[in-house]
Amino acid sequence: MKKRPFLMALALLGAIFLFFLVLIYLLAGFMGRTTSFPLGEKVGVVEVLGVITSSKKTIEHLNQFKKDDSVKAIVLRIESPGGGVGPSQEIHDEVRKLAEVKPVVVSMGSVGASGGYYVAVPARRIFANAGTITGSIGVIMEFTSVQELLGKIGLSSQVVKSGQHKDIGSPLREMTEEDRTILQGVIDDVHVQFVHAVAEGRGLPVEEVASLADGRIFTGRQAMEAGLVDDLGNLQDAVVAAAEYAGLDGEPRIVYPPKDKGEVLEYFIQEAVSGFGRGLQERTGTGLQFLWPGVE
Questions:
Q1: Contact call for residues 9 and 39 (beta carbons, < 8 A)
Q2: For residues 156 and 133, what is the distance between their CA atoms, to the nearest angstrom?
Q3: Portion of the chain with pLDDT greater than 70, in percent
Q4: pLDDT interval class at 98 (50, 70, 90)
Q5: Residue 39, pLDDT above cutoff 70
């Protein structure tokens, strides 16, 4: 009898929480969005999609999951043909730091090549589909000359510069041999950095990686034979592997970083529900959790 007020309060609190979750779910559905509320320990999925022109958002997502104690492992889902050297190196370095703290597993979709492969190599394990296009370990600069075209239409340019090579790569003049030597030196240095990053991340001899690093592409199956990826599998396979590395039991619960204000609110709701469930467990000794339909 003495416990009845506590149980009534508990039931009331549960009803309020359930009403709140239903309300959020209905609002999300009204706005054309789907929602889920993974509770407890989770696997975070960070996506690298398209050409890599900026590292800011990806690094924010990686750091968010790094600081979140409920996210026990991370899957990096890559659908990218590569991109800028700087952003790719920044994401690579952040993945490497994260992998020292939590398990990181990579899942490659249709393509994870060049910079898309660069960001993958610090991970503990890399999955690719048999037909995934990957590899392309190399660096490229392309320049177009419009000097002859401008001459044909009677246009010319005048350049004022502080040094001989300040307009190196300009489309308005022919590239000199000295220009080419300078640019080739830059390409070679960045290429060596790429090769060493792959060798370190994959645990391969530098010479072996260098023999593969002539810019060629591989299928996922060829890349596995060459030691550039570990397994053939899809995103779900990568999620299961990440959960195993983290010691999670049962079907892994997946969470994606919030992308807008609505998703930020959803993320905080997830954490509030998880915290509420843990608090009840400590208070009552039970494993009570609020599970939304479809979440097991």
A1: no
A2: 43
A3: 74
A4: very high
A5: no
Report which of 140, 143, 144, 142 is spatially closest to residue 216, judged by C-alpha positions.
140
Residue type, 196: H
Contact 245, 150 (CB under 8 A): no
Short-list 51, 220, 262, CA closest to 135: 220
Supply the pTM of this predicted model.
Answer: 0.75
Sheet strands (E) in the chain: 42-49, 71-80, 104-113, 125-128, 133-135, 217-218, 231-232, 254-255
**Separation between Cα atoms, residue 113 and residue 275, nearest integer Å:** 40
**How is residue 3 written in tokens?**
């416990």
Burial of 73 per CB tally in 10 Å (0-12, 13-18, 19+): buried
pLDDT of residue 148: 87
CA distance 28 to 47: 22
Quick check: 191 pLDDT over 90? yes
Catalytic residues, by residue number, are 114, 166
